[in-house]
Design a protein that fits this description.
This protein is α/β, with parallel strands linked by helices. 30% of the residues lie in helices and 27% in strands. It has a single domain, classed as Rossmann fold (3-Layer(aba) Sandwich). The protein contains 6 helices and 7 strands; from the N terminus they run αβαβαββααβαββ. A hairpin with a 3-residue loop joins strand 6 and strand 7. Bound molecules: S-adenosylmethionine. The site of S-adenosylmethionine has 21 residues, from loops.
Length: 192
């Protein structure tokens, strides 16, 4: 990783504390969706997504950390996931995906880092370019509780802060749900 990013957490995974199927069900993922996992880490969520969107759908796993993308590529080939692709990209710079082509974008345990590093605008501009009108943006974050797992308390985001960010960048919040022991999800829909 470059020194540009102060808060990256490359190589970290929440697989031991979050159930990917439950997360994706809470996000409302659908058969046939084009799904993108932004900051996928080891890809455990996108791999489950590739199964849930089925053969008519597609799952992209995007990360800036080469080692993670190599791990995801190995899992794709070992599991013969023909509808899934691992993409190496710094999403503060660009996301190499066609305009208006993605039905559902998820950021799991990633958004707080962009807020802390003051990189929200370029990331949200890139998301705005690739997501369809009416597309869903799901943000999973650690609950803002002191002395619990996740980033430092001052870096953790509350659901209200996430809702405010979504609204600022053109998404109406549909719902907020608690998931697992430590997390919540906020689902937003891109305004038409
Ligand atoms: C805390 S991990 C979360 C991984 C996974 N989503 C999970 O919940 O297990 C944050 C991930 O975001 C990735 N990341 C951070 N900055 C990024 C950027 N600018 N572009 C793409 N990925 C980024 C990191 O490499 C890391 O894999």
């Amino acid at each position: 990783m470059t020194e540009k990013h102060g808060h990256v957490h490359q190589g970290k995974s929440t697989q031991n504390i979050l159930n990917a199927h439950e997360v994706l069900q809470s996000a409302g993922i659908k058969l046939g969706d084009v799904f993108l996992d932004a900051g996928c880490g080891d890809g455990y969520i996108s791999i489950e997504a590739s199964k849930m969107v089925g053969k008519q759908g597609r799952a992209y796993a995007v990360d800036v950390y080469l080692e993670s993308i190599e791990i995801v590529k190995t899992k794709i080939s070992d599991n013969e996931l023909s509808n899934m692709e691992a993409v190496l990209a710094d999403i503060t710079e660009s996301i190499p995906i066609t305009d208006d082509s993605v039905d559902h974008i998820m950021m799991a345990n990633v958004l707080h880092g962009f807020v802390a590093d003051n990189e929200l605008k370029p990331v949200m501009d890139n998301i705005d370019r690739i997501i369809k009108s009416g597309g869903i943006f799901s943000v999973v974050e650690f609950r803002k509780i002191e002395n619990s797992p996740g980033p430092p308390f001052n870096v953790k985001l509350s659901p209200e802060q996430v809702t405010e960010i979504l609204s600022q960048y053109g998404f109406d919040t549909i719902d907020t749900q608690e998931i697992g022991k430590y997390h919540y999800i906020v689902n937003g829909v891109k305004k038409l």
